[in-house]
Amino acid sequence: MEKSKEYNNIKLIISIISTIINLVIIFILGFSKIGIYIKNISGNNIFYYGLITIIIFFISEIGFSYYSGYYLEKKNNLSNENIKKWIIKTLKEFGIGLVIGEILIVSLYFFIKISKDRWWIYFYIFMMIINIILGVIAPTVILPLFYKFKELDNENLKSKILDLTSKVKVKLVGIYKFDLSKETKKANAAFTGLGKNKRIIIADNLLNEFSDDEIVAVFAHEMGHFVKKHILKQVVISSVIMFILLFLINSYFYLDYNNFIVIYQVGFYFFIFQLFISFLLNLYSRKNEKEADLYAKEIMGTGEYLIEALKKLSKQNLADENPNKIIEFLTYSHPSIGTRINYLKE
C-alpha cells in the first residue's frame, strides 16, 4: 500500500512540475523577446519556427519522461524495457508529435494570415477534421509503430466478447491481442478506431493474468460507455468547449497577429483555460465511469468479476486504491479502485 502511494505521489509531483515548466515555456515563447529571436533565427519561416520550438519542448520534457516513464517504472519492477527500447519508443513518439505539431502550428498561422477575424472558426473546423483522421488511422497506422497485433486466438473469450457486443449492435473489424508485455507489466485493453474501423485490442499480459470472465467484465464496462452514449457526449462537450475557448481567445485576449509568437499566445491562453476546465471534465468523467461500472455489473449479473479484475489491475499497475480525496477530486478521471469496489459491492 505504501509503495503504491509513494509511486503515485512521485508521478503526480513530476506531472505538476512538468506542467508548470511547459506553461512557463509557452509564456516565454509567446510574450518575450525570445519568441521574436527564434522567429529571426528561423529565417521568418513558420515551418522552421515550429521545428525549433517543438524541439525546445522535447528537450524540456525528456528528463521528466526518463525519470517517470523509465527509471521509476524500473525501480518499481513495472517495466520490461531496456534503455535502448525506451529510447527507440521515445524517438517514435517524438516523430509523431513533431508531425502533428508542425501541422497544427503551420495551419494555425495560415488561418490567422487569411483572416484575423475568422481564423478561430477555420482552425476549429480543421482541428475537428484532424481529430477524426487520427481516430480512424490510430489502430492501423499509429499503434502498429509500437506494437504487433494478431487476431485473438482464444475462441472461448472471443465468443463471449462478441455475444456481448451483439447485444448492443456494435460492429467490429475484429478482436486483436498486442505485445504490451515487451515494455511493461501493466495490463490494458480498449476499443480503438472510429466507424467501420472500430476494433477491440487486448494486451497479452491481460490475457495471461486474467480469467476470461474478468476480461469480459472489463469490456462490459466499455460497452456501458457505448450504451450510455458517454463517448458521443464527451466528444460533443469537448468540441463545444474548444469552440468557446477559441472564441474567447479571439475576442477578449491580446494577440500579436503580425508575429509567429501569436501561435504560443493562443497556446498559452488555451493551456490556462484547459487547466481550470479539467477539474470539471474529470468530475463528469468519474460520473460516466461509475455508470459504466454499474452497467457491467447489471449485464454480467454480478459485480464480482469486475471487482476481481479491478483488484488485479490495481496490483499490476501499482494503483493507489484509496488516494487522498482532494487529489482524487482534482486529478482522477476515474474513481479510485477502492471507491469502485465499494459501490460494486452494494
UniProtKB/TrEMBL annotation:
Instruction: Extract the signal peptide range.
Output: none
Q: Which domain of life is it from?
A: Bacteria
Q: Which InterPro entries match?
A: CAXX_Prtase_1, Peptidase_M48, Peptidase_M48_N
What organism is this sequence from? Answer: Haliovirga abyssi
Q: Where are the transmembrane segments?
A: 12-34, 46-72, 93-112, 124-147, 235-255, 261-284
Q: What is this protein called?
A: M48 family peptidase
Describe the location of the CAAX prenyl protease 1 N-terminal domain by residue ranges: 2-148
Q: Does the keyword Chloroplast apply?
A: no
UniProt-annotated catalytic positions: 222, 293 (proton donor)
The protein's UniProt keywords, in alphabetical order, are: Hydrolase, Membrane, Metal-binding, Metalloprotease, Protease, Transmembrane, Transmembrane helix, Zinc
Family membership? Belongs to the peptidase M48 family.
Q: Which GO terms describe its biological process?
A: CAAX-box protein processing
**Which parts of the sequence bind Zn(2+)?**
221, 225, 289
Cofactor list: Zn(2+)
Domain Peptidase M48 spans what residues? 152-346
Task: Offer an example of a GO molecular function term for this protein.
Answer: metalloendopeptidase activity
Q: How is the cofactor bound?
A: Binds 1 zinc ion per subunit.
